What we know:
Layout: H1 2-7, H2 21-24, H3 38-55, H4 60-69, H5 86-92, H6 95-101, H7 141-150
Amino acid sequence: MIQNFYWGQRGSEKRVHWVSREGVVVAKEDGGLGFRDLEGFNTALLAKPLWRLHQREGSLIARILRAKYHRNTSVLDARVGHRPSFIWRSIISSQDFLNDGLRWRIGNGSSLKIWGDKWLPNEGDNYITSRPMGLPVDSTVRELISQEEEK
């Protein structure tokens, strides 16, 4: 609706594009119009129920969705699946957004995948990129801790 107001046209009437799409969402203090970035706002709103499903795995809705869409994985690793509902597809669409902002606390390391989760404290890439020989792809950080104790 906002887009049509600023950039739409009716029939043969031409409109002048006074402000770029990016200029609309810039804060007023910075010379923009101060509108919210609706796409980012929508993604944030969809990330909230995904986070709740992750935090409250025992809730009724979390158990129902797990049984239907992601039996053997965490909700953070789940895929859209076959013939998903509109709600599930919408919630899962915010998964990358949420995963990009997450960092794990190691604890005992039993739920952290060595190569699949962001668990390293360095700024840029939080993943281990090289694989040591002898450890399967789905190894957990706990296995690294156990190996260190044995040596």
